[in-house]
Amino acid sequence: MNTRRLLIACALVTAPALRADEPDLVTRTAEHQQGASKLSGEQDELAADVQQLTLEQTVPKVIELLKECEDLMGEASERLAGHDTGGETLGTRSSAPVMAPEAGRASVTLDPCRRR
Predict the structure, then answer these.
(1) Among residues 67, 110, 73, which one has the least CA distance to residue 89?
(2) Is the predicted pLDDT of residue 102 greater than 50, yes or no?
């Protein structure tokens, strides 16, 4: 019984010292939320750029793709603003850059002024 108490006492005394260099949960959570908020702002700026591109287009398929891209970016931005950085948020945020080049290819292919 005394050995057990000694082991528990040693564990209680040394555990905080072993983790002294790690940020505590509150600090890590605050850093995570700050990072998510920063990404949300950047995502908003990119969505505004896509919205401007959409307004400049004349080809319906390109407009459709860019609006889809903008919607995805808006969804990602809202999730990030709520500090949600889970798999769905990352998937949504990753889908938009994949769609933008598709819209660019459609613009070149479908716009009669750009055809070669």
Answers:
(1) 73
(2) yes
Question: What distance in Å separates the CA atoms of residue 10 and residue 110, rounded to the nearest whole number?
Answer: 73
How far, in Å, CA of 43 to CA of 73, rounded?
6
Residues 103, 58: Cα–Cα separation, whole Å = 12
Closest by CA to 89, choosing from 43, 51, 45, 48, is: 43
Residue with tokens 């603003």: 81
DSSP per-residue letters across 30-58: HHHHHHHHHHHHHHHHHHHHHHHHHHT--
- Is residue 34 predicted with pLDDT exceeding 90? yes
Check if the beta carbon of residue 96 is closer than 8 Å to that of residue 72: yes
**76 neighbors 92 (Cβ within 8 angstroms):** yes
Residue that the structure tokens 């080049």 belong to? 101
Output DSSP code: residue 59: -
CB neighbour list of residue 106: distance below 8 Å, 6 or more residues apart = 59, 61, 62, 65
Residue 116 has pLDDT above 60, yes or no: no
